[in-house]
Design brief:
Rossmann fold, 5 helices, single chain, alpha/beta, 229 residues, globular
């Protein structure tokens, strides 16, 4: 993947959520960037952090378009203050990150999340007029005893891209297809063949599938938003 900008990364010290300071990093973008980006990480109780491989590869794709990308740790993860709050408080953390981007960069926002982060970000971003597009990677259905429901997507009118592995153990195909079918337009659902939840290969199709995931994100940015690398 070509990169418009090998972005510099810096720690963010002034991002505060409802439970306290949130550890965050910003990959800088081009001065003429059309959007700023937020990427949310997977479940804290499963070891999810802003350095997760899927989150990192999503960030790299956005950065290749010259866009500044903010990643942060939910409450109780890494150096972030507070404690895990079953997805409710984490929505407040996400809104605080959106506020930070708006306040500091003043650009329209594209928001993204992986797994638990996809759910939390959809809840926080849907209906926010500052968010012009939403990316959901590995949308969860039933994961380690936690069930996710998506009735709210019927009122979510921003452009949405859903990308999942066709062997996702936490997002069964029928569950994801039902959730996406209920969502307001515009929307697009892409299945990565031979990929499980973390976009790694299955025995019949070994090897990581992260590059295919990145290609789908890039196509969406080009086709939906007219961006170029």
């Amino acid at each position: 993947m070509t990169a418009k900008n090998l972005s510099k990364i810096r720690s963010i010290d002034d991002l505060h959520g409802p439970a306290g300071r949130l550890e965050a990093v910003l990959n800088s973008g081009q001065p003429d960037a059309a959007y700023a980006v937020l990427v949310c990480h997977p479940h804290p109780l499963g070891g999810g952090t802003m350095h997760n491989k899927v989150v990192y590869h999503a960030m790299k794709t956005f950065s290749s378009f010259g866009l500044p990308v903010l990643r942060f740790n939910f409450r109780g993860v890494g150096l972030s203050e507070g404690a895990y709050n079953e997805g409710r408080g984490e929505q407040g953390d996400t809104r605080a990150a959106l506020d930070w981007l708006d306040r500091n960069l003043g650009l329209p926002i594209l928001s993204a999340g992986f797994s638990f982060g996809a759910y939390v970000n959809l809840r926080a971003s849907c209906g926010d007029p500052r968010v012009k597009g939403i990316l959901a990677l590995g949308l969860p259905g039933l994961a380690e005893g936690r069930s996710y429901t998506y009735e709210f997507l019927a009122q979510c009118a921003q452009p949405k891209l859903f990308v999942s592995g066709d062997h996702d153990q936490f997002g069964a195909r029928d569950v994801v297809e039902k959730a996406v079918a209920s969502a307001a337009e515009p929307k697009r659902l892409v299945w990565i063949e031979g990929a499980e939840h973390f976009f790694q290969g299955i025995p019949q199709s070994p090897g990581p599938k992260l590059s295919q995931m990145q290609q789908e994100i890039a196509l969406w940015l080009k086709n939906q938003f007219g961006l170029s690398q």
